[in-house]
Design a protein that fits this description.
The protein has about 170 residues and is mainly alpha-helical. About 30% of the residues lie in helices and about 5% in strands. The chain has six helices and three strands; from the N terminus they run αααβααββα. Strand 2 (about 140) and strand 3 form a beta hairpin.
């Protein structure tokens, strides 16, 4: 993942030696009610190529078994975890032989529900874990083919407890 981060940093202008003029602004997104995150899925060629390289590593091949779960995490708010997860999911979904479920498990600062048009909803992962809703009622089709989103869900008082117990493990299985 560090190679992808380095490539995106270069694309963001972090490297003087980079020959391509690449416009990539989503690195500085913050969850803000006044300014919901907007991600442009029409990537510049260099950035698109970096995501395609990662996609080729993740999709099953003749000598590789399929990877079922990929986790994207950031160490600090605003590092681009939401942007990376959304663009990676959309890149993976372009493969016509697989369906992608993008899960927002960021209970402190959820943002994926506002990235995709019409997905702003309070039903999602927390509701599934607490067994308050069925999976069919919390997974939404995006405007991108083969890409589905499971938003974070309603706010919870202690987000770290959402990962304790077997509910989250059963859900991922």
């Amino acid at each position: 993942m560090s190679k992808i981060y380095e490539a995106l940093t270069k694309a963001d202008g972090g490297s003087e030696s980079h020959q391509h003029k690449v416009k990539f602004t989503p690195f500085h997104l913050f969850k803000d009610n006044r300014h919901p995150p907007k991600i442009d899925f029409d990537l510049e060629p260099y950035v698109e190529e970096q995501y395609q390289k990662l996609r080729r590593q993740l999709l099953p091949g003749p000598k590789r078994s399929p990877i079922k779960v990929v986790m994207v995490a950031a160490t600090d708010h605003g590092e681009g975890g939401t942007t990376t997860a959304a663009i990676l999911a959309s890149t993976l979904a372009k493969s016509k032989n697989c369906k992608i479920l993008l899960v927002d498990a960021n209970f402190r600062t959820p943002a994926l529900d506002s990235v995709f048009d019409g997905q702003e909803n309070n039903v999602g992962l927390s509701d599934l874990i607490l067994s308050e809703v069925a999976a069919d009622d919390s997974i939404y089709q995006t405007n991108l083919p083969n890409l589905f989103v499971l938003p974070c869900g309603k706010p919870v008082s202690s987000p770290s407890y959402m990962f304790d117990g077997g509910s989250i493990t059963d859900l991922l299985t």
